[in-house]
Design goal:
The model has no long low-confidence stretch (mean pLDDT 90). The protein is built from three helices and four strands. The chain is globular and about 35 Å long. Helix 1 links the parallel strand 1 and strand 2. The strands form two sheets. A two-stranded parallel sheet has the order 1-2. Strands 3-4 form a two-stranded antiparallel ribbon. It has 88 residues and is of the alpha+beta class. Helices cover 38% and strands 22% of the residues. The termini are far apart. The chain folds into two domains: 45 residues, no CATH class; 41 residues, no CATH class. Belongs to the ABC transporter superfamily. ABCB family. Multidrug resistance exporter (TC 3.A.1.201) subfamily.
């Protein structure tokens, strides 16, 4: 089992991409638990759990969570991070 807690949080975008590619190779055929605020870190995960106030409010794949649209917690987080990234 591989446990990653904010593994790329202190990295710039380029370094994050390099580390993420390396981690994806290491995670092959391994159960991995990833804690992340940067949602780009988890978009390729098989199962994503969205927490709010310590409780799971949504779970599913990246695409299934996005399909819930603007009322979904994950969709809202993706939208918020996208707007923050585009404003810098």
């Amino acid at each position: 089992m591989l446990l990653l807690d904010e593994a790329t949080s202190a990295l710039d975008s380029y370094s994050e991409e390099v580390v993420q590619e390396a981690l994806e190779r290491v995670m092959v055929r391994r159960t991995s638990v990833i804690v992340a605020h940067r949602l780009s870190t988890i978009k390729n995960c098989h199962l994503i759990a969205v927490l709010d106030k310590g409780k799971v409010v949504e779970k599913g794949s990246h695409s299934s969570l996005l399909a819930k649209g603007p009322t979904g917690a994950y969709y809202s987080l993706i939208n918020l991070q996208s707007r923050a990234h585009n404003s810098t």
